[in-house]
Amino acid sequence: MLEEIKFDYKITEIDLSKGDQFNINFRKISPLSKIPAITDHKNKVSLFQSGAILIYLAELSEKFYDIENRNLINQWLMAQMGDIGPMLGQHHQFHHYNPGKSKFGEERYFNIAKRLYKDLDEHLSTSDFLAGKKYSIADIATFPWISLQIFFRSFRVFLELQLIMWL
Ligand SMILES: N[C@@H](CCC(=O)N[C@@H](CS)C(=O)NCC(=O)O)C(=O)O
Questions:
Q1: Domain end point (choices 61, 87, 102)
Q2: Do residues 127 and 75 touch, judged by C-beta distance below 8 A?
């Protein structure tokens, strides 16, 4: 998002494997010890949760969050936050990072992921972007999850035509 809106920014690395997320100073801006989190030093605002961060940056830059289309954008942004992200996250954990540890988990989240990809593909056959005709923060939030399938090389299983075109 920061690249898209061309804001200057500095990255502070939080190494989750070393437990940096539990650092007392980081927890002051991210009380659930999760990345991402941002601090806007100019406006003295700190935020955690990617959806809230995207809305904040979109409002500040007046980009990718058209006021007249806000209900649809919010709807798809929340779909990412509540369904797409958490469910695909579980799928990746069971299927890609820890295969063989839980047949139930692998099957359950594989089926949920498959259904999500199919539904997204169907939606994108009638809509240029997730929330209509224009690229929005809903697409920005969802893109990393879908593009991960290419990284995992399982795109032949999941990625159907409209999704590939959207990517
Ligand atoms: N709903 C949150 C999810 C954030 C999240 O789960 N972040 C993970 C990394 S992808 C994390 O920081 N995990 C560290 C931990 O739980 O200790 C968002 O969209 O910002």
A1: 61
A2: no
In this predicted structure, what is the pLDDT of residue 19?
Answer: 98
Mutate which of 12, 32, 35 for ligand 1? The one with the most ligand atoms within 8 Å of its CB, which is 35
pTM, whole model, 2 decimals? 0.92
Q: Confirm if 138 and 159 have CB atoms less than 8 A apart.
A: no
Position 115 confidence tier, pLDDT thresholds 50, 70, 90:
very high
3 state SS of 45 = strand
Q: How far is the CA of 26 from the centre of ligand 1 (A)?
A: 13
Q: What is the number of the ligand 1 atom nearest to the C-alpha of 30?
A: 12
Q: Which residues line ligand 1 (CB under 6 A)?
A: 16, 21, 33-36, 49-50, 81, 85
Residue 158 CA to residue 98 CA, distance in Å, equals: 19
Contact (CB, 8 A) for 64 and 58: yes
CA of 86 to the centre of ligand 1 (A): 10
- Enclosing domain of residue 16: 2-61
Question: Where a domain ends, among 18, 36, 61?
Answer: 61
CA distance 157 to 110: 10
